[in-house]
Amino acid sequence: MLPPKKLLLIICGILLPVIVVGAYVLIQPKKDSTITSITAAMIVPHLRDGDVILRMSNGALSETFSNFSLTDNRFSHLGIVRIYNDNISIINSLGFITNREKGVEETPLYDFLKVALSIGVFRIQSVEGSIISDKAIGYLGYPFDWSFDLNDGSKIYCTELLYLVLKQVNSEHILSTRYLEQINREIIPLDSISNSPYIDEILYIARNGNDAQ
After folding, report:
1. Rounded distance, CA 210 to CA 213, Å?
2. b/e burial code for range 96-128 (CB count within 10 A of at least 16 → b)
3. How far apart are CA 76 and CA 53, in angstroms?
4. Which of 25, 63, 68, 79 could bridge 90 with an S-S bond, Cβ 3.0-4.6 Å?
5. What's the distance, CA 84 to chain centroid?
6. CB contact at 8 A, 173 and 166
7. Residue 126 region, left (φ>0) first, then alpha (ψ -120 to 50), else beta?
8. What does pTM read for this prediction?
9. What contacts 200, CB < 8 A, 6 or more positions away?
């Protein structure tokens, strides 16, 4: 049997590292998992040219547009990613109640994310991304389509932009539509992207404490 003093030294030698490590863990500040803003650093590693980026914001029409979707209300707006000479921009068609002159424009990624409550990145299968972004550039300057008329090619609303691009690229990838009784039109809801069998969801991030998936 070991002498008491030697036994005590062995016990102290075992317990001291445990006590030190435990104390270190306890005094470390707890990390806050709340996402208060969605930054470019969170998104850029996942982006490729031609990706589709969906956004939810708190704009006056955001809830209305998100409710056009029957199965997925995470988003209210759509853009197409363009990566050129290391610059990342979003081609999207915007419309504001107070400014109906808005339409298809190229927006820096930083500005696109500033109002985002959630962001989803989606990738179209079997199509080179540069083809998607090149086709989208061709619609820059088109006015916003406040009549939501898919038969009027002179004006474009947000999901209609992708709809028109895909019509040129691959007819199999055409987005589904649904009839909206309130405006007596066939419209393209945002869940036609998230539910499409030809489009993969790459990333989803939401603010207010919801972790990235």
Report:
1. 9
2. eeeeeeebbbbbebeebbeebbbbbbbbbeebe
3. 11
4. 79
5. 19
6. yes
7. left
8. 0.80
9. 122, 123, 125
**Residue given tokens 């306890």 in the structure block:** 26
DSSP label of 18: H
Contact 144, 156 (CB under 8 A): yes
Residue whose entry in the numeric block shows the structure tokens 């921009």: 89
| Residue 211: burial class (beta carbons within 10 Å; 0-12, 13-18, 19+) | exposed
Q: How many Å apart are CA 159 and CA 180, to the nearest integer?
A: 15
The string of pLDDT tens digits covering residues 34-58 is 778 899 999 999 999 999 999 998 8
Region at 36 (left for phi over 0; alpha for psi -120 to 50; beta for the rest): alpha
CB-based contact 51:202 (threshold 8 Å): yes
Give the span between the Cα atoms of 21 and 63, in whole angstroms. Answer: 49
Coil/strand/helix, residue 60: coil
Q: Give residue-wise pLDDT tens across range 76-91.
A: 999 999 999 989 999 9
The domains located in the chain, with CATH, are: 40-206 (3.90.1720.10)
